[in-house]
Write a structure and sequence with these properties.
Distance between the termini: 62 Å
Order of helices and strands: EHEHEHEHEHEHEHEHEHEEHH
Largest sheet: 7 strands, mixed
Number of helices: 11
Shape: elongated
Radius of gyration: 22 Å
Strand content: 15-25%
Helix content: 40-55%
Structural class: alpha/beta
Length: about 325
């Protein structure tokens, strides 16, 4: 028989992402509407281990849906990665009456939720990461805002790059996943897109592409470089030396994590947060909320973590075609 949930905790873990506040708001208000108590856990698993836990009511989440970041804050926690830390966290949940927990974050956060589930705390994960790198879902909270922020910044760099007839290397976030780079490369009309999943370290191909485009009369050149490849400044020096074309590097950095979330991030995060609460109220545990093929669904965390994700080959092919490499 499913365990009845009386108090639901919510935390954000890992890197912050625009839309997390919308998800928190949805968790709190849906849980209250279902007759449950709600506790907010500050600073992720780090705050859980230090019992930084607050009571939340309907007013706790007023006027936050439009704000970037997370009102619950977030932090990394090495202690929680140990069996002792996980046992301590489960005991603290029980001490505070938290029998259901919503964890908003990425794969690492879900591994923590999985451990707590095995220790008797019903847990549901909600995918929150700007990198779009969670395999079980087509949408992750924060990606839409981050990619639009990057796109707008790249448009501005393109303007000055065109004016000065430069090559611009623009580095976007994505340590292991190139989705922001791929989408911006297509949306911004970049001449070269460097993805961790596809880059072959052949800088000469980029140089040859610049030279070929200059012979065609192209006056500027935009390269979108994912953070996982990096070395944008040194790459710029080498390209300038090889082509004679003034080359500048721009690293967009953590500006991509901030800002008011887009409508898509607000709506999807709200529905995912509410869905997570309803799973807990139904007695479910060790689940991850996902958006797949136009529907909100859920997976076992074990199944979700076992899935692998790669860049869509057709999207990559089209990105190359549209960049003029034919």
């Amino acid at each position: 028989m499913a365990k009845e949930i009386n108090t639901i905790g919510v935390l954000t873990s890992g890197g912050d992402a625009p839309g997390m506040n919308a998800a928190i708001r949805a968790v709190v208000r849906t849980a209250l509407a279902r007759g449950k108590k709600v506790k907010g856990i500050m600073k992720g698993y780090h705050g859980l281990l230090r019992e930084e836990i607050i009571d939340m009511d309907i007013n706790s989440v007023s006027d936050i849906i439009q704000k970037g970041g997370t009102i619950l804050y977030t932090a990394r926690c090495m202690e929680f990665m140990t069996p002792e830390g996980q046992k301590k966290a489960a005991d603290i949940c029980k001490k505070h009456g938290i029998d259901g927990l919503v964890v908003i974050g990425g794969d690492g956060s879900f591994r923590g939720a999985q451990k707590l589930s095995h220790l008797g705390v019903n847990t549901v994960g909600v995918p929150g990461t700007i990198d779009l790198d969670i395999a079980c879902t087509d949408f992750t909270i924060g990606f839409d805002t981050a990619v639009n922020t990057a796109m707008e910044a790249i448009d501005k760099v393109r303007d000055t790059s065109t004016s000065h007839e430069r090559c611009s290397i623009i580095e976007v976030m994505g340590r292991h996943a190139g989705y922001i780079a791929l989408w911006c490369g297509i949306a911004n009309g970049a001449e070269d897109i460097l993805l961790p999943e596809r880059y072959d370290n052949n800088e000469q191909k980029i140089i040859n592409h610049i030279i070929t485009n200059r012979k065609r009369g192209k006056k500027h050149h935009i390269i979108i470089n994912a953070e996982g490849i990096g070395h944008s400044a040194s790459m710029a020096k080498r390209i300038e030396a090889a082509t004679g074309m003034e080359t500048r590097a721009t690293i967009l950095g953590h500006m991509q994590r901030g800002g008011s979330p887009t409508c898509k991030d607000r709506v999807y995060a709200s529905i995912m947060g509410a869905y997570a609460v309803d799973l807990l109220c139904a007695g479910k545990s060790n689940r991850v909320v996902a958006y797949k093929h136009g529907e909100y669904i859920d997976y076992e965390i074990d199944e979700a973590l076992a899935m692998k994700k790669d860049i869509d080959e057709y999207q990559f092919e089209i990105s190359q075609l549209l960049s003029g490499k034919w």
